[in-house]
Records
---
Amino acid sequence: MKYREIKNTDLKLSQIALGTWVFGSDMWGGSAEKPCIDAVKTALDCGINIIDTAPIYGKGRSETLVGKAIKGMRDKVLIATKCGLLTEGKQVFHNLSPASIRKELDKSLKNLGVEYIDLYQCHWPDPETPLEDTLSELIKMKESGKIRYFGVSNFDYSLLYKAQRMTDITSCQGQYSILERGLENDVLPYTFDNDIGVLTYGSLAGGILSGKYTEPQKLAKSDARTYFYKYYQGEIFKRVTDILTSLKDINKPYNQIAINWARQRRGVTSVIVGCRNPEQILNNIKCLEWELTLDQLELINKTRL
Ligand SMILES: NC(=O)c1ccc[n+]([C@@H]2O[C@H](COP(=O)([O-])OP(=O)(O)OC[C@H]3O[C@@H](n4cnc5c(N)ncnc54)[C@H](OP(=O)(O)O)[C@@H]3O)[C@@H](O)[C@H]2O)c1
């Protein structure tokens, strides 16, 4: 495994992190318990030392499965979970108020069966809560020892800048892939200059960049990929297929190309890859055995949807 440090912290993250949205099951075409637990064990055996989860993934199922899997191995793993994205019935809403975060954190600690979270992330911005209030609460939680570091996720540049002016933001999480390049505009240069760690998600674009689909998928309406990763449908699917075909000469599996591209971009600390079983992990980590050349990176950089 290869690791990268986040400056001014004692966090040393594997360049590939295990993503566990799929463990939630309900929004991702179902997932059985055993392969998820085995995936965590395999990840740790391979040297992956950071697992990303969130209480909203399967309403606690993802955190609970991660907790089960890491029992007895707490010292081997960095746990990154989140707060601020909640559900009530079918309604999803944001809440980063201090009272709500306090409640969520205690629930996450219980789900995971741990005494502290290594990296606690604001899942999405909450326009209704003053940022100062959220950050003050996170500072208090750090002082209490319930979390070691905190970061943000899905914050745009201006909000990240505002937060970093108020306190030290350890990390920033955002969607970043060959197909989704928004972070390059301002977030990545800013995090690089300010020693903020970057965790990318969706670097396989929900799985489509593995190249395993030869035709658009018929996914249930409730499946997160239908709205979160729009590439599964119609014209756009055809364009993604063309992009993958243009990378054929690199002569490596597409999933590895996609992960390496994100992993090798300046400023990226760790690429969170969602995996539903050990096989996907073992397949993905093979990308660490090789690197894209500068010419290959340049070729991919020119690619646009
Ligand atoms: N902060 C946020 O708002 C946010 C948003 C999204 C995700 N995340 C985090 O980031 C993680 C990664 O993102 P993601 O899971 O949404 O998308 P992703 O990593 O781009 O795609 C994950 C999916 O790709 C497929 N896959 C993985 N390895 C494969 C392989 N070797 N061959 C074929 N298919 C493979 C699996 O799908 P199937 O087996 O189902 O086909 C897997 O569920 C999440 O799990 C979550 O922890 C955070």
---
Amino acid sequence: MTERVIIIGAGIAGLCTALSLTGAGRQLTLLERDPPPPEGGLDAAFHDWRRGGVTHLRHSHAFLARLRGILKARHPRLLARLLDAGVRELPFDGVLSPQLKATYTPAPEDSDLTIITSRRTTLEWLIRDYVQALPDVEIIAGAMMRSLIIDEKTTPWSVRGVRYERDGAHEDIRGDIVVDASGRLGGARDQLIAAGAPIACESEPAGILYYTRHYRLHANQEEPRRGEHPPGNGDLGFLKFGVFPGDNGCFSITLAVPEVELEMRKAIVRPEIFQAVTQQLPGLIPWTDPERAEPVGKVYAMGDLKSIWWEFAPNGAPAVLNYFALGDAHVRTNPLYGRGCSFAAIAGEALRDCLDAHTDPAQRLIAYERALRAALRPFYDNMLQQDRSAIRRAEHALTPGHKSSLRGRILKSFVEDGVAIALRRDLALMRHAMRAFHMLDPPDAWLKQPANLLRVAGHWARGRRANAAFYPPKPGPERADLFAGLGLDAAADLRPAA
Ligand SMILES: Cc1cc2nc3c(=O)[nH]c(=O)nc-3n(C[C@H](O)[C@H](O)[C@H](O)COP(=O)(O)OP(=O)(O)OC[C@H]3O[C@@H](n4cnc5c(N)ncnc54)[C@H](O)[C@@H]3O)c2cc1C
């Protein structure tokens, strides 16, 4: 019997679910609250696509190598179409220090470490166009899920379908499985919780706000050449920054500001301040030079960034049957790590495996939740640890006279004078670290291998003077200098020492 799958949301997770489930004899219907993309191609999608359901649509996005690998292995025609349309591949050698790059010879497996990047509207437009042409997929646009149809006579309850609103009328659609890919804002999970389904949740703040501005290169200009300028991404503690090369002459810049930096948070949304910040950061100066590129549109700001993990079978007991959450509806992550879309794609693959392997609804959910925990949780936990330490660092920057503990100082030195230097000197270690970054290996496994740890310790032991040539250029000014350059009050958010 053909299974009917209803997918709530045709964002990245909904589309990834369709890519994973297609071709296995199931009938897939995606309900999407927003209208389809406007006519007029990729630029029209960027400027005019109304996407009230995805408020972060116009923030910088890149797909990690793990997601690219899934596309390459399972949907090579889609990957080819992305590249034909101008989506960029950023290869491994782009992250190498000048010293490593000078002697670098590509190994075949280095192509597994390629990122893909473009305006997110471009990625989504192209993936959607591909998905809706699949013979077993239907996308119903303008269809707002209003409620799940729940059978409360079973234990646990079973989801039987979705009630949605379209053009002012309500319709019911029934299915064997409902996939909730409605992102941060969708309400299906909340309906279940309000009705008493035992769904558990953990949440922590990401500790930052995101500010993105798009730029377009002038007709006769090219992107700054890699290696000729300081890196286009960096972390000053009180500010993180990154350039995202885009498609068709576009790129975007994202500045991430700690939540505690209230003065900067207020100011940076002003286009002239955003531009002035970029012109104080050596890695961004060549990109936003008015001779090279012009800004497009406003500064997009986004707060309330959280990491959230929902548990749909707490302690192995399914909370509800025939309902599978995927993407941000299941796990939200700090955008800085660029992992959300890869998490969604991995979950789509896991869902297919579990649906294929089991017919019993409870077994399916237990297997799915277990698979996600195994595949994603190590990265999630590693991210929480890093976020907690970044939050502390940002607070310390606002505490005059703050002194780190001895342990804190040693750890800082190990990271900055050991790990960071090793990654700029030792190609094999850099390959290991990037495999972890791209979620091809567990997050810390490379550093836990005794041989690798010894090599890092060796670089650390050489000391700062011997390693001097391997330190990266300073990514930007001190906090007080940056604020002074912007005409902002650097003392406004200072707090008394504890
Ligand atoms: C600022 C920012 C930057 C990010 N950068 C990156 C990055 O560089 N790389 C990366 O991998 N990840 C990144 N992420 C994370 C990534 O964007 C998300 O993980 C991803 O969008 C999740 O996809 P989703 O489909 O679950 O949710 P969404 O993309 O939010 O899509 C949800 C879809 O469901 C629809 N919908 C919602 N409610 C309903 C309803 N009731 N009925 C019908 N349809 C509904 C919405 O319209 C939308 O189309 C970033 C996140 C943020 C916030």
